Amino acid sequence: MKLSLHFLLPLLLLSALLCPSSAVLCHPQDKKVLLEIKKAFNDPYVLSSWNPDTDCCHWYCVKCDRTTHRIISLVIITDNKISGPIPPQVGDLPFLQTLIFHKLSNITGPIQPAIAKLKSLKFLWLSWTNISGSVPDFLSQLKNLTFLDLSFNNLTGSIPSSLSLLPNLDAIHLDRNKLTGSIPASFGEFQGSIPNLYLSHNQLTGKIPASLGKLDFNTIDFSRNKLEGDASMLFGSNKTTFLVDLSRNMLEFDLSKVEIPKNLQYLDLNHNRITGSIPVGFTADSNLQFFNVSYNRLCGEIPVGGKLQSFDYSSYFHNKCLCGAPLSSCK
Ligand SMILES: *[C@@H]1O[C@H](CO)[C@@H](O)[C@H](O)[C@H]1NC(C)=O
Ligand SMILES: *[C@@H]1O[C@H](CO)[C@@H](O)[C@H](O)[C@H]1NC(C)=O
Ligand SMILES: *[C@@H]1O[C@H](CO)[C@@H](O)[C@H](O)[C@H]1NC(C)=O
Ligand SMILES: *[C@@H]1O[C@H](CO)[C@@H](O)[C@H](O)[C@H]1NC(C)=O
Ligand SMILES: *[C@@H]1O[C@H](CO)[C@@H](O)[C@H](O)[C@H]1NC(C)=O
Ligand SMILES: *[C@@H]1O[C@H](CO)[C@@H](O)[C@H](O)[C@H]1NC(C)=O
Question: CB neighbours (10 Å) of residue 80?
């Protein structure tokens, strides 16, 4: 007896040193759920490492928490063999913080309602898929969300105003869908962090809510929609906005009264119905890298100074009666 113990102990120690990963980490419930997801997706090749005989913390496309060993991340990128709807079992990974399905062009159906159960979710990125239906209201229950990207899908319906109840959002990407209706007025009421708004390439209509003027957004991309009316509330000299792209809408306001946010680096207003002239104040912004006010109804002389003369004539052409460098001189 004594002998065998002497013999066994160093052996155990040695094997622990040689195979530190041999300890089973995977939570059996998480493993069961992942295998169900694999089955629902029809056993795709990309998930072939999801072998029931191995530790699920070592499988591809997932990550376990270092201490709890619960699945915290599920990321599947670029695969057209994965088809069908998002399986409801994704809602049964209760510690999931990151869920990414990107460039899975054969994923169809709505945004899976069971995602509402993922209260720890911080990062939800479902893009370049064929998911359809609406942007669900339940997203507003996921209070820890910092990043929401549902771009490049086939989503319809309007933008839920309840998204403004999310206190930690850094960005909302709903661009390149088929969303209709107007931008919710509640988007001027974000309480915690103020998210970058990417709503371009949809069919949004109506006016930009005046409430948006209350917040100092970093990035606003509303381009290629059917927005009309005023957009001057998005500007102001005491804002620190970095990018404003309102190109290809039907916006109609007087640019003369607009104060450019200090440090604005990117301003695209092309293809709207903007009137007035370019304010002299625009010469004060030396950080401007991109500027395009073409295809509007602007008039008057382009103020001389700052970066304004460094832009191509195509930044200014197709206006009512804009003149001066880089366009031809005013008569
Ligand atoms: C994926 O979709 C394409 C185009 O719709 C189709 O040709 C292909 O058969 C689909 N693949 C699978 C695995 O469903
Ligand atoms: C949300 O995040 C906070 C701060 O990181 C954390 O303490 C809390 O447990 C998270 N809530 C959930 C449901 O995961
Ligand atoms: C979007 O869905 C429609 C049917 O509702 C379909 O005809 C179309 O091909 C889809 N487009 C994309 C880009 O997935
Ligand atoms: C998915 O979307 C692509 C375009 O991104 C389209 O060509 C394809 O037909 C769609 N597939 C299905 C199954 O809807
Ligand atoms: C910015 O200016 C507007 C009026 O131009 C004013 O109402 C608002 O309080 C100012 N905001 C800050 C943060 O100074
Ligand atoms: C400005 O926008 C117009 C219209 O899209 C385009 O033709 C032109 O090339 C753009 N110019 C610059 C410098 O971006």
Answer: 11
Radius of gyration of the chain (CA): 26
21: helix, strand or coil: helix
Q: Classify burial at 138, counting beta carbons within 10 Å of its beta carbon; exposed 0-12, middle 13-18, buried 19 or more.
A: middle
The CATH architecture annotation of domain 230-331 reads Alpha-Beta Horseshoe (3.80)
Phi, psi (rounded to 5 degrees) for 140: -70, -10
| pLDDT confidence bin for 262, thresholds 50/70/90 | confident
Q: Which numbered atom of ligand 5 lies nearest the CA of 216?
A: 13
Q: Is the pLDDT of residue 12 over 50?
A: no
Measuring from atom 10 of ligand 5, which residue has the nearest CA? 238
| 132 touches ligand 4 (CB under 6 Å) | no
Domain boundaries, the chain: 230-331
Q: Read off the pTM.
A: 0.89
Distance 266 CA to ligand 3 centre (A): 32
- pLDDT band for 25, please (50, 70, 90 cuts): confident
* Ligand 1 atom index nearest CA of 82: 13
Count Cα atoms within 13 angstroms, Cβ side, for 195: 24
Q: Is 42 in the pocket of ligand 1 (CB under 6 A)?
A: no
Residue given tokens 């105003």 in the structure block: 161
pLDDT cut 90: percent of the chain above it: 87
